[in-house]
Amino acid sequence: MLDKCVVSRSLAILIGFLALALTSFAVATYFLAPGVAENPALQAFLARQLSTSIAIAVVVSAVAYLLWTAQFRRLQGRQQKILNLQHDVMAKQMEALSSQAATCILDPSGRVEAASDGFVDMLGTSAGALLGQPLVEAVPCLQDSRLHRMLSEAREHGRFVSGEVSGYPTDRPGRMVVHVTVIPQFDREGAFSQILLVLADKTQEKMSETDRFLGLMLEELQEEIYVYEAGTLAIRYMNQSARQRLGWSPAEARARKISDTVPNFDMRALEKHIGPLVEQRQNAVTIEVSNAGDSVEIVTRKMTGTDGVDLFVSSLRDLSHRHEIEAAKLQTVSMVSHELRSPLASIKGSLSLLKSGSLGEIPAPVEKVLDIADRNSDRLLVIVNDILDFEKIRSGTVDFSTADTGLHDLLHEAVDVNQPYADRHGVTLRVAPVPADARVEVSQDRIMQVLTNLLSNAIKFSDPGDTVLVCAEGEGGNWRISVTDTGPGMPEQAIADIGKPFHQQVPVDGRKREGTGLGLTIVKQILGHHGTKLAVESTVGTGSTFSFALPAAMPSADGAAYDGLDGTGDTPPPTAIYS
Amino acid sequence: MQLERILHVDDDEDIRTIVQIALETIGQFELRQCSDGQSAVAEAQDFGPQLLLLDVMMPEMSGQEVRVAIGDLPGMDKVETVFVTAKAEDDFARELRAQGALAVITKPFDPMTLADQLRTIWQKAQ
C-alpha cells in the first residue's frame, strides 16, 4: 500500500518537473531567442506556445496533486481501520480476561498465556497451575480429542471453530460438558499469533436432557410406577403402564390419591408395608400381593422431592409369569434330583451290603476301594440334597410351621444323626448339659437340618482326636444353641463371606474339604425363617463357634434345671423316615 | 401280630435286588417282588401280603394307584403300605401319609437297616 503511495507521489513530482521544464523552455525561447522580437508572427506563435505550456503544467501539477492526496487519504483510512480493529480485539481480550467469562489466551504452541477467573473457576483449577503450561495437559477435563481437532483447525485455517467437549473435573463428581469457541489471532504481518478460547459450561443443560431421557424411559417402563406424597398420599406421578391399567389421564392421576388405585384399599396394609421406611429402618420394602389369581410384587422407596416434600415411589411388577417359570424350574430340579437319587440308592445300597459282609467276607484291599466308592456316593448325595434344599427354601415351598420341641432331644438326635460322620473323621461329639425342660418353638425338621449342617462342618474342619461341643444356654426369652470346634479357625474376611451361595472357604490350613458351598447358605435361610441369625466367632488357630438363638417355648429358659453331662450317642443313624 | 409277608413293587431291577437281600437275607421276611403295578395286583391275593412296599414313581401305574387297586381286592382292605420314593419333599411325604400310608422312606435307604425300620413302623402301627 505504502509503496503505491511513493510511486504515485514520485510520478506527480516528475510530471510537475516536466511541466516546469516545458514552461521554462517556452519562456526562454520567447525572451532570449534571436530575432523573436523582430518577427511578430513568431512572437505570437511563441506566446501561444508559452501559455499552452503553462496551462498544461498547471493542469498536470493539479492532477498529480489530487491523485496523490486521494491515494494518501485512502491508505490513511485503511491503516486507521486496522488500528481500530486491533484496538477492539485488545479491548475484548482485556474485557474477557478481567470479567467472570471463562476465557483464556494460548500462545501458538498451545501454552496458556492468560486465563480469566471465570475460566479458572469453571475448570476447578488455579491460575498458577495453568500459566505457561500446555492447556490440554494442565486441565484434565479438557483432555478430549475434539478440542485437539478444534485448536488445529483454528491454527491451520485461521478461522473461528466451536463445538462441545466433555471430561471429568477433578474437584467434583460427574461428567462436565463445555461449549468451546476457538478464535485465532494474527499479527500485523498476518502471521498466527494467539488463540482466544471462550468456554461455556453446558453440564446443567445436558443434565436436563438426560433427565428428560430418564423420564421418557420411566414413562415407557413395563412396570407400573407410582410417586405419591408420604403425608397426604396424593399422587404426583404415574407412568403410562399404571395409567393404562386404571384408565386415567396424567391430569386425572394427579388429582387422585394412591388409595384410589384399588377398590377397598387396605390402609392398614399400606401402613404396615411402609412402616420400616417411615421409621427409617430400611431403604426399600417389598411386598407380594395376590389379587384374583394375579400375583404382583410392590417395591417401595422413600425419597425427597425437589420441593422438599417426602415422597414414596412404588413400583409394581407382575409376578405371574415369574412364578410360572420358578415352578417349572423347581419341577426340573426336582426331576433331576429324583433321577439322580434313584441310581444313587442302588449304588449306596449295593456298597452298604458289600461292606456289611453279609454277602461274604471282603478282602482288606477291596474294602479300601469300597470305602472310597461309599464315601463319594455320600458326597454326591449331599450335593443333590443341598441343591434340592436350597431350591426348595428359595422358592418358598418348604413348610416352616413351628411346634413346641424339647431341646434336649433335638440336640441329641442331631448328634446321633451325625455320629457316623464324626466316627469316620475320628472326632468326638459332645452335648453340654441341657435343662431337661428346655423347649423351643421351632420347625423341628428344619432346625435339625441346621444342626446337621453345622455339625458336619465342625467335623470336617476338626482333626482326628478333636471334640466338637454342642451347647444350649438361656439368653433372655431365647435359647442360644452353639456348635464349637477346635479347627483351624477363620480370618475376618472369611467370616464375612459365610453364607454366600456356592462359596467355599479356603481354610487357613490350606486343606480343602468336600462340600457344595451351600450348607451355610441353607442354614442362614432356615434361621431367617425363624427370625434369627447365624453368629460366628472364630480365632485363627483356635477354632470357631457357630451359634443362633431360638425362641423359648413354655416354660421359659429362666430357672430351668440341668440334667447333667451327656455323652455322645452311638445309635445308628436313622434314614429319613416321615412317620 | 408279627410282620412276615411283604409285597415289594419297584420298576428298578437293581433296587429290587438290593431290597431282596435286605428283606430276605438280612431281614428274614417272606418277600414277593413285582416290577409293575399290574402284576402286583394280579399276585396280591395269591400271596396275601401284610405290607406293601411300593415305589411311588412307576410307569403305567403309580405306587398310589397300586395301593388303591390292591386295597379294593376282596380281603385286602387291611393291607398296610409303606412308600419308597426319591422325591424328598415334605409336602409330598405328608400327602402320602394323609392317603393312609404308614410311612414314607426316601431313597437312598440303608439296606442294612431297612428290615429293622419296617419292623419298627409295623409295631408302631399295631
From TrEMBL, chain A:
<dbReference type="InterPro" id="IPR036097">
    <property type="entry name" value="HisK_dim/P_sf"/>
</dbReference>
<feature type="domain" description="Histidine kinase">
    <location>
        <begin position="335"/>
        <end position="554"/>
    </location>
</feature>
<feature type="domain" description="PAS">
    <location>
        <begin position="210"/>
        <end position="281"/>
    </location>
</feature>
<keyword id="KW-0418">Kinase</keyword>
<dbReference type="InterPro" id="IPR003661">
    <property type="entry name" value="HisK_dim/P_dom"/>
</dbReference>
<dbReference type="Pfam" id="PF02518">
    <property type="entry name" value="HATPase_c"/>
</dbReference>
<keyword id="KW-0808">Transferase</keyword>
<dbReference type="InterPro" id="IPR035965">
    <property type="entry name" value="PAS-like_dom_sf"/>
</dbReference>
<protein>
    <recommendedName>
        <fullName>histidine kinase</fullName>
        <ecNumber>2.7.13.3</ecNumber>
    </recommendedName>
</protein>
<keyword id="KW-0472">Membrane</keyword>
<dbReference type="GO" id="GO:0009927">
    <property type="term" value="F:histidine phosphotransfer kinase activity"/>
</dbReference>
<keyword id="KW-0597">Phosphoprotein</keyword>
<feature type="transmembrane region" description="Helical">
    <location>
        <begin position="45"/>
        <end position="68"/>
    </location>
</feature>
<dbReference type="InterPro" id="IPR005467">
    <property type="entry name" value="His_kinase_dom"/>
</dbReference>
<dbReference type="InterPro" id="IPR004358">
    <property type="entry name" value="Sig_transdc_His_kin-like_C"/>
</dbReference>
<dbReference type="InterPro" id="IPR013656">
    <property type="entry name" value="PAS_4"/>
</dbReference>
<dbReference type="Pfam" id="PF08448">
    <property type="entry name" value="PAS_4"/>
</dbReference>
<dbReference type="InterPro" id="IPR000014">
    <property type="entry name" value="PAS"/>
</dbReference>
<dbReference type="Pfam" id="PF00512">
    <property type="entry name" value="HisKA"/>
</dbReference>
<feature type="transmembrane region" description="Helical">
    <location>
        <begin position="12"/>
        <end position="33"/>
    </location>
</feature>
<keyword id="KW-1133">Transmembrane helix</keyword>
<dbReference type="GO" id="GO:0000155">
    <property type="term" value="F:phosphorelay sensor kinase activity"/>
</dbReference>
From TrEMBL, chain B:
<dbReference type="InterPro" id="IPR001789">
    <property type="entry name" value="Sig_transdc_resp-reg_receiver"/>
</dbReference>
<dbReference type="InterPro" id="IPR050595">
    <property type="entry name" value="Bact_response_regulator"/>
</dbReference>
<dbReference type="GO" id="GO:0000160">
    <property type="term" value="P:phosphorelay signal transduction system"/>
</dbReference>
<feature type="modified residue" description="4-aspartylphosphate">
    <location>
        <position position="55"/>
    </location>
</feature>
<feature type="domain" description="Response regulatory">
    <location>
        <begin position="5"/>
        <end position="122"/>
    </location>
</feature>
<keyword id="KW-0597">Phosphoprotein</keyword>
<dbReference type="InterPro" id="IPR011006">
    <property type="entry name" value="CheY-like_superfamily"/>
</dbReference>
<dbReference type="Pfam" id="PF00072">
    <property type="entry name" value="Response_reg"/>
</dbReference>
<protein>
    <submittedName>
        <fullName>Response regulator receiver domain-containing protein</fullName>
    </submittedName>
</protein>
